[in-house]
Amino acid sequence: MSGDWLPATVIDADWPIPTGRSLWVRVDGWPGNLAGQHVDVRLTAEDGYRAERSYSISTHGPSPVLEFAVDELPDGEVSPYLVHDIEVGDRFEVRGPVGRYFVWEPAQTGPVQLIAGGSGIVPLMAMARARRDSGSDAPFKLLYSVRGEPYAYFAEELEQLRGEAFGIDWVYTKRAPEGWHRPPGRIDRELLEQLVIPAIEQPSVYICGPTPFVEAAANLLVELGHDPARIRTERFGG
Amino acid sequence: MIVSRGFGERRRQPDPSLPPGQRTTEDFPVMSAGPTPVIAPADWRFSIATERGTAQWGWDDLTAQPIDEITTDIHCVTRWSKLGTRWRGVSLDHVLAAAGGTEQVSAMIDCYGDYTTNVPIADLVGGKAWLAFEFEGEPLEPEHGFPVRLIVPHLYFWKSAKWVRGLRTQAVDEPGFWEVNGYHQYGDPWREQRYW
């Protein structure tokens, strides 16, 4: 049972990228969550009007402090409020955690390939943090596709995670940093063949991002011999 | 009541055709747990396993059945709804009748890509569920279930399984894929049966 609506208080907020915001909330009574799960958010206006949305969580474990990232949708009703208006100290309600499939648990010891497009990094960040916090030595690789450097969530923290058993590959679709070894462009077969843990090593693959990105990545990996049963996807937007 | 200061300026008009907690979308979002399976209609098979035995249909068997035109609202558990969608497909009434009917209470729907979902028989018969092969006058898009998907529009849309390859009746309403992974056993949008 995902239980009752719980009060959440914003304790920190920043704008890590120009089009999105990261919110830290404290949720009294939060039962904890696995890496990769979602939370339902409910906002109530002063006259009782309500709206609900679902967001992936970038934190994991028993802590009552959750982080999630919100991209602003141009014709959105909730996302512009969360990105521009809400302030530290403001309150809303949450319910969860939700979803038991798109999760990584430290008991999984096999190799893991994470593939993120844009804010699709959020649940994958929870997995990367869970790996670090549990002391897991499961080999991880992350492929993170963003428009350009300013559009990467968690860039600094990810670079700190980089290590022998945690590889990070950046893919820039619109503008690459000066001197970058690859011209900007979308993922393709050659790129995935080069950067993704090969099928023969049987990695568990987690892909999250906008639908066209996830479709492309998942289909190409199947073509490259990855077992569809090892590819978990999470798509957003339409 | 916990109020979010200043929230509600961009609110939408309430729509009585929407179940609680839903909002309309003009797009058709894609929700799948894995890669999109590739199935040619000529290779598509649908097996119907009941207590009376197993029948198997191919594409021509399906399209030789009486075909319904369906206009319906659909409601995804991730909170989008799409109003007035148009489909063509074969009623599950015909599918089950062709197999000799069933006395069992539930069906497990099997899909290419190993997805499963459970639906009570009572929710499949009586003109409430179809094997659909056209959406808005066109064949289904691959990511939306080509060549054939189930639609059970009165339940949350994860029950409307894509890339279907069979139906197994069962004496007990055993849970399918999402029903094991946190989603509700039945999934009525009007009662907001999202999660267990």
For the structure shown, list the relevant keywords:
heterodimer, A: 238 residues, alpha/beta, Elongation Factor Tu (Ef-tu), domain 3, Rossmann fold, 2 domains, six-stranded antiparallel sheet, five-stranded parallel sheet, 5 helices, 11 strands, 34% strand, globular, B: 196 residues, mainly beta, Sulfite Oxidase, Chain A, domain 2, six-stranded mixed sheet, five-stranded mixed sheet
Spell out the blueprint of helices and strands.
The complex is a heterodimer of chains A (238) and B (196).
Chain A: E1 6-17, E2 20-27, E3 38-44, E4 50-56, E5 65-71, H1 79-85, E6 91-98, E7 112-117, H2 121-134, E8 140-146, H3 155-161, E9 166-172, H4 189-195, E10 204-210, H5 211-223, E11 231-236
Parallel strand pairs in A: 7-8, 7-10, 8-9, 10-11
Antiparallel strand pairs in A: 1-2, 1-6, 2-5, 3-4, 3-6
Chain B: E1 23-24, E2 45-50, E3 53-58, H1 59-63, E4 68-75, E5 80-91, H2 92-98, E6 106-111, E7 116-120, E8 130-135, E9 138-139, E10 149-151, E11 164-170, H3 177-180
Parallel strand pairs in B: 1-5, 2-11
Antiparallel strand pairs in B: 2-3, 4-5, 5-8, 6-7, 6-11, 8-9, 8-10
Largest sheet of chain B, in brief, is: 6 strands, mixed
Q: In angstroms, what separates the terminal alpha carbons of chain A?
A: 28 Å
Number of helices of chain A: 5
Which segments of chain A are poorly predicted (pLDDT under 50) over 5 or more consecutive residues? none
Percent of residues in helices of chain B comes to under 10%
The whole-number mean of residue pLDDT values of chain A reads 93
**Second CATH tier, the architecture of chain B:** Alpha-Beta Complex
Q: Calculate Rg of chain B over CA atoms.
A: 17 Å
The CATH C-level name of chain B is Alpha Beta
- The largest sheet of chain A has its strands arranged as 4-3-6-1-2-5
| Class from secondary-structure proportions of chain A | alpha/beta
Instruction: Determine Rg of chain A (CA atoms, Å).
Output: 18 Å
What's the pLDDT, averaged over the residues of chain B? 93
Number of DSSP strands of chain B?
Answer: 11
